[in-house]
Phytoene synthase (Gluconobacter thailandicus NBRC 3257), 306 residues
Amino acid sequence: MGLERRISETGQGTDMVFSRARASSGLPCAQADLDHVEHIVTASGTSFARGMRVLPTARRQAMFAIYAFCREVDDIADGDAGVADPSQALQEWHERIDRLYKGETRDALDRVLVATIFRFDLRAADFHAIIDGMAMDCGEPIVAPDEKTLDLYCDRVASAVGRLSVRAFGDSSPAADLVSKHLGRALQLTNILRDIAEDAERSRLYLPSELLERFNVPNDPKEALYAHGLDGVAHILARRAHDHFRDARRAMKDCNRTAMRPARMMAASYEPVLNALEKRGWKNPEEAPKISKGCRAVRALAAYVK
């Protein structure tokens, strides 16, 4: 049982002070290694780095390491890493993760990941799940998976990331894993609904085959864009995403309130995207939804102070 979980279960004041001191002091890594990992994050152009500024130093550095790992395996899966055999490269990441849990490191990212793994009791199974999720995007594009496969994909590429993240945030309880399960699926379904047209350009279609058949939508990604029943399929998935947002908020009530702050902010930022997509509909999925940045900012701020 990790330090953070003992704190959440015992509530002892001295342990809490010790935990905060450790989380604030930074990971025991060379500054050059930490800078290298942060550069991977900032070079990606994501707003992730700004969002993680709310965390104490060690937790923020841990999240940068988790993000850098995800960035590297995602680039392999998307063909942006310049490797000849993406499947083999991902298999090598499986082997690399196994080495990290033995304390074996070969570069800066390895060293920061090892420090993160052992400081926050991260589970190897979650790293392996993420790699397996990226492998699903290698080779033949995903087209109209069945419901079970889609849920597995969402678990691997989104909820597994959440299971690592909540530990870095400071909560390793079963309730925190439940938050990861539901919030990860809510975010991934929102991404899928937002990116239907973009995915079609890459010959991908993540909508489940059962719903496509029910609404008479063809399995061909580009033909599906203009099918009359696409709107019905997408609205059902949107309702499922809302259900997952709701279940994530419910599970958060049984978690460490401070630890869940980044998760609350992420949900508050993403739900307006889902709402805007529903308002626009999917009769013309290439049209950009109208999302108020001010609304998203206010919701995220409200989640921070809540």
